[in-house]
Amino acid sequence: MNLVSRWASLAGGLLLAASAQAAPVTYQGVLTSGSFAGSVAADSSPWGDAAGWSFWQFTAPFMAQVTITVTPNDPAFDPVIAAFYGTEADTSGYLDLRTGTQSVHVALADGATEWSLGGPGEAATLRFDNVYGSGTFVLAIADHADGLGQGALGYTITAAVPEPGTYALMAGGLALLAFAARRRRA
């Protein structure tokens, strides 16, 4: 085999490997405030191929505080979760749970309290203030590659994602209070 054909076969192999990791992003649902159930592949690794991750979409009003907790239903599940602002065309856009090619990394959590490492069976909670805009966010969930668990590992998401209607209702209530106070003075 000559040098040119070796380089051609190497380049072809690299292209095949890269395209094997590119899969469409499949969303398990849309998060609002409340509880949601889902599952993720065991040992899906937050630093590896995103094709094994679990994805959810959500929106949040600008400047709202968002809190999302993922609680394992299986004691072998060691969740690592991340939020991104914007979406990727396919899973190859997520280089790891801290880097997207077209989206902005917002927050990462691995444990019940921020900046603490969790372990198998422990919930992961992320919190952030939406200073990014009113577009779509993506929640990505992975399992640490620790050799524990097999198949799909179940979890429950508890989300406190305020909807725009919540802020409109609060503003309306404050306006009514201001009107009543002004009328009382008159």
Describe the structure.
β6 (94-96) and β7 form a beta hairpin. The strands form three sheets. A five-stranded mixed sheet has the order 1-3-10-5-8, with no helix packed on it. Helix content is 22%, strand content 36%. It has two helices and eleven strands. The protein is an alpha+beta fold and 186 residues long.
How are the elements arranged and paired?
Layout: H1 3-21, E1 27-30, E2 34-41, E3 54-59, E4 65-72, E5 79-85, E6 94-96, E7 99-100, E8 104-109, E9 124-129, E10 136-143, E11 152-160, H2 164-185
Global geometry: elongated
Helix content: 10-25%
Physical arrangement of strands within the biggest beta sheet = 1-3-10-5-8
Described by strand count, sense and barrel closure, the largest sheet is: 5 strands, mixed
What is the H/E order? HEEEEEEEEEEEH
How many DSSP helices? 2
**Assembly state:** single chain
**Overall pLDDT score:** 80
SS content category: alpha+beta
Low-confidence stretches: 1-20
Number of strands: 11
**Gyration radius from CA atoms, angstroms:** 21 Å
Strand residue percentage: 35-45%
Distance between the termini: 96 Å
Summarize the structure.
The protein is α+β, with helices and mostly antiparallel strands and 186 residues long. The chain has two helices and eleven strands, in the order αβββββββββββα.
What descriptors fit this protein?
186 residues, alpha+beta, five-stranded mixed β-sheet, 2 helices, 36% strand, disordered N terminus
